[in-house]
## 1
Amino acid sequence: MNERLSQLPWAELWHTQGEIPWSALETFADAVAAEPGLAEELFKTYEQAQGVWFTGVCYVEWYVPAIFALAAPKLDEDQRRTIGEFLVKKLAEAGRKDDELTMEALVDASGYMGPVIVPAVLDAIAAEPDSRGAWFHLWSLTALAAETDDNLIRDRTVQACVGLLERADRGEADVDIGFEAAHTLGLLGRTEYVTLIQRLAEKCGPLMGRADYEEAADLLTGAADRDEFPEAWQEPVREWFEPRWQTVKDWYVKRAAEELEDMHAPPTEPRSKVRRFFRSTWARDLPDDLFDGAGFILDRLLDYAKEYEGAAPNELNEQVLRAVLLDMFPRRIAGKQDFFAKVAPVVAVFLEWMESEGLLENGSTLAQAVHAWAEEIVAAGLNPEKWGRTKATVMEGEQTSVYVRDVEAMEDYWRQQALQSLEQEPADQEEQSRFTPTAPIVEHTPKIGRNEPCPCGSGKKYKKCCGNPAKGQAANI
């Protein structure tokens, strides 16, 4: 780092007390355009911060995107392209970690870089395996193509959007993952696709995308104007960054309270163990594909061990683990092969961590046993003879549209169905006792626009909150 760069207020980026250091952020933003190499130094600082916030308080991961957003009007096209490619890359990585707060900051900052980043966005979308992770955030950035006269960018964007929508129309992709592509076609004024979009609106459920398809069709038919649908990057940076930062700050306060609670929690309290694990380097070193879903797996492991086997975390043994992983998991969890393939490696790492923390005497030995059951766990999870009534109904008829991973909402739904049918037929008492009504179903107004305030009261736009299918917040029944 040269002398001029070293004189910038780097320490302000690492302060964890007080309010947002806007003066320092503006100083960095002014310098990004004038100082060659500063963007690269900020990239490095961002990378360094990723290893800090996991275990301590750190706002750098949010300050760096804000700096780039503030700098955008002063940057030339090459600078915006370079910075945009970095932000898009980090957006995809945050998606693989299911880090919603970071994704929101990155997608908004990326938008300020303008249409020059669209090729990088389309490349990132093509690399996404399915609709998980940053899928919807990335697709929202394709709207930038409407801001350029570059026919290569516009044509490539149209090709990608139409390709996704046609696959959804043929039933080769879920229809509710294409509404951002439809919106982009609406902004691009591609009226030849209005019939396709209207057809998808009819196929899409009222809670997860129909209103968005209808809004896209309205753009194409002239019933709506694009100014009705502003994006965050069309607003002053402070307007979206301050509430984002406050949410992160509140999260740190909550985590500190949980750490204090963990210190005084009984040694057998299950949830405190999972929280401690996720603040450890053991969790941070998990591969991305295992990290996604690990919390759910470990919560269920300890919950089922306590509920059905009467075993606290420090009482786990081979008999308890076999009962939970080879009986209760297959019976209760409506997962597919990729989910059950994660169970053994995630549980094994957790058991080894338990031993390293002095929470379980033979964690490594138990981890070896769990590894040996890996194929058996997958086979049991996919074996219909192992399924309970709730799981069997969902697996055999996914037309219920209850999110398979949102098992608690699923079970609550089926519990309500069972209660409603008590007058018609006797209940299966053994299976009925397994229902756990922990996640109430939230009813939404059928037509909610993507940019309308979310009815949950969060203060966010609907598309950034309950209207984001990637978050799986609503049971779509």
Note: The longest helix spans residues 237-264.
## 2
Amino acid sequence: MRSSWLVLAWVFGVALAGVGLAVGCGSSSAGARATNDGGDASTEAAAEEAAVDAGPDINQDPDAYPAKHHPIPQLDYNGGPILQHARIVTVTFTGNVHRDGFRYFDHFIVTSGWWKQALESNCIDAGPYAGCIGDGNDVASDGGAWRPDGSTADGGDGYLDVELAYDLPGSVLMDSDIQTWLGNHITAGDFPPTDSQTLYAIYFPTTTSISYADPNSGQLQTSCQQFLGYHGSIAPGSPAGGTAYAVLPYCTFGIGDDFDYQQLILTTSHEFAEGVTDPQVDTHTAFALNVGNDPWLAQQGIAGAGAECADMCANVSSPSVFVGGGDEPYDESGYNVTRIWSSLAASLSMNPCQPWTPTYYGAALRTVPQPIPADGNNLSDGYVFVKRGQSVDVVADVFSQAALPHDLLLYAGVPKLGAMSPSDLDAPPDLITVSFSQQQVHNGDGVVVTFTVPSKATTGDNWMVLRSVLEQTDYNDWPLIVHVQ
């Protein structure tokens, strides 16, 4: 739901993660669990199962693309509704100089190539919400065609967009104030009526500050400081219950209005993607990556129960940007939009953050779901269990979608803020060392990765990545957690 301060990475060019896979931000997400539990018989058995024989049979045919490898996580469906044909209602306040720009973008983007590639593979197979996300609806509720000035083709009152004088209770707002205000206008008939496909996009002026209590930490989060936007829904039970909305504050960064506008467009694309794949996030979650994929969720240190489709790609850079360039936007017809986690792409060994043009590759660690003591022994994948003073060997399968121009180089460690080279990683925490049976690799290679833990290491979880580097500005990370017993 919430787009946290990590979205600011693109704004300032901060190196939060590498080019390729790196998770982003969100409110319903799970981080790595620090624990002093020394493990039990079940986790030790699972660790032994994850360890592998370093024999010659670990290699595959290098000309079979992609080589078989541990699966890339797919988003979980949790039973909630989706907006199969989203109807965006653009809400602005009198005097907003970008009113027409916001209206045009909101109605263009739901039928764009970006929308089709990034979102239309999200499908529910059965049940009351069965169906797939398709193109949005860019016509008014009375059937008239939408026009950039907000009118309809037949001049009727079935408008899509709203402009009104600022009438919220002050310039410092809580999310509850916005819900009450939105619900009152809908029930009064001031706004187009809500339905199961409607999402209200509310663009606030620079003079408005919006806060909410983070559902995970309980701490107060403030717009343009800890977050750039979020989406939510009005709780069932009220006349406007179930209404989906996106809160879009206009943040200024001292660089120029064009920059501020494009940053808000980037945020808007993030919230629209999550708003259609998980519109009832607070009460009836639909698509999110759930607990069970802890290393992927922990890349941003986020905590909670899952992560939505845009959160999971919030810090993915394109290969054209400098190393660690943060959230490099995708250009959709001149608009900066975010990349979106696609389960279809993940299942095909493509970069799950779509759209994505370059050949995708990685070094996927062979792990098995294991009970995590700190989480009530719930199963999670991506852990390597190592006792203090010992080493464990695990195979990583190198894969690529197609032939690469030359071999990859492997590294291991923690992504480093401000790094200007993909090989510049922080060392694994607590003097843990990682070594490879070979560092120069290509599709089909099985690499033995040795994790060694010193005898005085602290028990608990240590997050890191296996990094595959093709070029200075082209590399991908495979996350993992070393649990020290």
Note: Helices lie at 8-12, 41-50, 99-109, 113-119, 175-187, 257-277, 294-297, 343-347.
## 3
Amino acid sequence: MAGGGGTGPVICVTGLTKRYGATPAVDGVSFEIGRAEIFGLLGRNGAGKTTTVECLQGLRHADSGEIRVLGLDPGTQSAALRRRIGCQLQESALPARIKVWEALEWFASFCPGRGDWNALIGEWGLAGKRNAHFGDLSGGQRQRLFVALALVNDPEVVFLDEMTTGLDPAARHVAWDLIEAIRDRGTTVVLVTHAMDEAERLCDRLAVMDAGKIVELDTPHDLIARHTSEITVRFSAAHQDVSWLREVPGVAAMAHHDGQVEVTGCGPVAVDVAAALAAHGVRPADLWVDRPSLEDVFLRIVGRSLDEG
């Protein structure tokens, strides 16, 4: 993950609230997003992520709060805004008989002179399906087409909602590389996801949403560091006395059983343990380091997994 750049926020949100009846789908959220930043909204289904980005795009009107995207108010300047943004929605559809190239050319016609839709066909792995009808595409191919359509006008800001749903693991990694390349060209990316690995890999910063509120906002690295401190180092040492590892700075506990050693601690304990082992001439071939993941952090913050209602 590379760091985001820019000289000021391109998206400013203050006190955004959206209700459906008496139920607040989004409840007073505030945040800013910088230029050339991948900003993630992470949470379970129903947390308020999609409603938030729909308000940012002018697809839904907020009940209260202030929103500015590229200096524009999505509620009153949506037509001007849509010429400068791209969006891939969670639920999208095209006519079954439209061909891949026709869809891209059609979308490009709304913004003449912006971007190269022919290049997008190759970048998103659709060259072999150029003349295929939308109705004949697989789920993953449709998803790649929707992302390509979101980028056809060379947007300054692009919104991607569950962009890798339906993609196989190899295609997901290709998509991640392309999204990073989009950011590196100066485009701001707003990524809605409930995939922990995707958020941890891609996002410069992410907001954890729960019940319509932002409960945490930080870089993935700093979220993990702030909410979890324990690191575990494991290796084999069948006939060696390594009890001296207890004296290594940062080590909180050590267990040695059936030839397996497990050391737990905090800070740079993995580096310190490895250095101590090398200094004592111990060179295990199976040294493993278990670090807390973003999923561990999510469980601590929200109190339940993404799968729990």
Note: The mean pLDDT is 89.
